Each structure stands twice: as structure tokens, then as C-alpha cells.
Amino acid sequence: MKKGLFLFLLFVNAISFSQILIKGNVFSKTNEPLEGASVYFNNTTTGTITNSQGEFELKIKEGNYTLVISFLGYKTKQLLITPQKKDVNINIKLEEDSSILNEVVIKKTVYDKNWEYNLARFKQAFLGRTKLAETCKIINEKDIYFEYSPKKNTLTAFAKKPLRIKHQGLGYIITYDLVDFTLKGQQLFFSGLARYKNLKKKVTRRWKQNRLEAYNGSQMHFLRSLTSKNLEETGFVVNQFKRVLNPDRPFEEKINFAREFIKLYNKPIHLSRNISYPKTTLDSMIVTLQKAKLPKYQDYLYKTNLSYHNMITYNNNIPYLNFKNYLMVIYTKEPEEENYLIGMFGKRKKASGVQTSNIVLLEGNAQIDKSGILINPNAVFNEGYWGFEAFANMLPLDYKISGKE
User: Fold this and answer.
1) Which contacts of 29-33 are long-range, i.e. CB under 8 A and separated by 24 or more positions?
2) Least packed by Cβ within 10 Å: which of 92, 184, 232, 347?
3) Residue 153 has pLDDT above 80, yes or no
4) SS3 of residue 200 by DSSP
5) Domain map of the chain by residue range?
């Protein structure tokens, strides 16, 4: 019994020593302590508020973190923290925020049908269309403002206050400071600062199961498996392909010319009629518009079951996602959700029984953090299943499959 207790104490001590203490003070520019300032590590469940002296303490493991300090009426501050074995002590000064967030747009905002339509588009893009997205509720929706450009087909969203998101499916209350949201056509880019808190002290069995399902097959799961070199064991298969213009589809200039030609034609035209051999200019224009419906690109698979050196490189022991063309990441241990198969426009896809995502690098390479995320999430573009799984399926960086959360 004593031996077991001794081993247990050693284990507890090992855990405590693996934690690094981050402490400090938050002041105004005039050196007044700020009580109630929010201090947290971005995208984690680790956070606190300052006491009457502006003091705070947090514990974290070694790694790269963004410490976020926010207080109403002051500019939010972000600090890159890379604790390594030694405790860290920092003093932080916040500047008053005298800027007014796009006050013109806020003043003219009317919560009408247009705003409701833009809100619906925002929620579908930001939260996603998964089963878990249906369990998410943005508590302060009316703090979200929109700008829409019909010419560019671009929806931009911003918020005067951090969004408060109640996630009943995963058991979190999430405070999200929206930094950027741009939806251009079907391409989405968003970024922000998130703090996760459990809805209750005790994490229920349902929440644990939902969190595990959200983790399985996710980009975080893939990147952790990639850096640990156990992709096959965790259920991932990776192929490589290149994407080229479809030679059977006419160039955009030719398609636009055909459209203008048809507009100028005074007689009724049957665009769907079968034309094997065009005999007139009109026939040629009709064939051009028929071929315009073909896919713009074609994908050519040229490598299967990629080895690690084809996907990841190291610089000073820091891992980088590094590959040519596109990766097709297949997660074999879970099928697609029904909502994914139905698609945004109600056209059902054929089920494959696996989850397939395509990724392309936008900036040459992308640094991978120890927690299993990309340092710059906008360094890659996701298609397929990861594009379908949006914010509602994201987990905090300190999520672990087993152990206390």
C-alpha cells in the first residue's frame, strides 16, 4: 500500500513539474492595476481574470502559445509565449481603445430580412453544417454586423463585442473575438481569439463522446498523427494529386464571347439541342456554352500512400507541412455525415464510407505546432470534409483523448 502511494505521489509530482507557471500584472498606461481583465491562452481552456491588484497566475505545459489580455475599453493585447522549463513573470500595459469600430455601418444597421439572410449565411459558413453545428447558439447575434459587395460577391462580418457561443454538443461556452471573416463565393477565411470554458464542472459522458468524435479524423488529429509518425495506426491514408485546367472546357474569354453573341441573337435559341458537327457560328456558340458546364479543373492522382518525407520537413527540429500540389487525406475509421452527403444545394453525393479532405499550401509551407495545429491557419486551404467541418467541430488546443480535461 505504501509503495503504491509512493508511486502515486511521484506521478503527481511529475505532472506538477511538467506545468510551467505564467504570472504577472495587468496595468493601464498610467500604471493603475486593472481588476477583472481577462487573461487566457488562445484556443484553450486555460484562462483567468485579474484580481484587485491586477495580478494573474496560469499554468501551462511547454510549447508555443498566444497569451491574450483583454479588458473593456482597452485594446486587446496578444503575446507569444514559449515557456521552456522556467516560470515566466510578465507585466502588461493596456492602451485605451479610442477607435470606433466602423461606426457608420453600426449606425445604419437595420435588423431586417437582409440582416437575417446575411446572419444565416454567416452561421452556416462559420459554425458549419454538421450535427454539432446544430447544437451551437450565438448568444449575442445582434452584435454582428455585415457588409456585402454584390460586385465581388463577398460577405464581410465583424463584431463590436466578442461573440459568446453556447455549444451544447461539446459542452463549452466559448468567447470568440472575431478578427476577420470573409466569405467570397464558396471560399471562406476567418480568424479570431477563442477562450473555451466547460459548461459544467463535470464533463458528461455525452460531451466526452462528442469531443472524441469531433477529434477523430480532424485536421488536429491528422497533424498530431503526422508529427508522431503513426498515420496508418490512427486510420489516415494520404495520396497526392495535381490539378490542371480541363482541356475539354473552353477558356473563360470564349465562354463570355458566346454569351454575348447569344444575347444579340433575335430569334429563340434551344441551347440544349444536340450538335455533333457545328455548321454555323451560332452552332459553335451553343456548343461552347454546353461545354462551359464541364468542370473547370481535372485532378490527376500520381502518388498513393505517401511517406512522411513527402509531407513534412524539419528546420531546427521545428516541423513544417511541406509538399507539392495537393494532398488527399482520407480518414478510414468514420463515414461521412448525412449533411455532408446531401450538400449545400440538396444534391446527394454517393457515400464512400470514409472522410476525404483535400489540402493545398498557399504560402509554400506551414509550421506545425506541438499542440497539433498550424501556426498560421490561413497558410493552407481545405476542401472536402475539413471544409465541411467548420468552427462547431473545433476543439481547444489542450484537448486530450484520455485523462482529465
Assistant:
1) 29/93, 29/94, 29/95, 29/96, 31/93
2) 347
3) yes
4) coil
5) 2-94, 100-202, 216-247+296-399, 250-293
Q: Tell me whether residue 33 is exposed, middle or buried, using C-beta atoms within 10 angstroms of its C-beta: 0 to 12, 13 to 18, 19 or more.
A: middle
Q: Is the pTM of this model over 0.85?
A: no
Considering only CA atoms, which of 151, 147, 141, 152 is closest in space to residue 180? 147
Kindly give the interhelix angle for 252-264 and 281-291, rounded to the nearest 10 degrees: 130
Instruction: State mean pLDDT over 378-390.
Output: 91
Query: How far is Cα of residue 284 from the mean position of the Cα atoms in its chain?
Result: 44
Cell numbers at residue 275, please? 450538335
- How far apart CA 152 and CA 387 sit, in angstroms, is 21
How do residues 352-362 score in pLDDT, each as one tens digit?
A: 999 999 999 99
Q: Which CATH class is domain 2-94?
A: mainly beta
Residues 37, 40, 44: CA angle, nearest 5 degrees: 150
Q: Beta strand 77-81 with 65-70: parallel, antiparallel or unpaired? A: antiparallel
Q: What is the DSSP letter of 279?
A: -
Give the separation between CA 145 and CA 102, rounded to whole angstroms. Answer: 9
Rounded alpha-carbon distances, angstroms, from residue 72 to 28, 36, 69, 75, 80: 12, 9, 11, 8, 22
> Residue 189 in 3-state DSSP?
strand
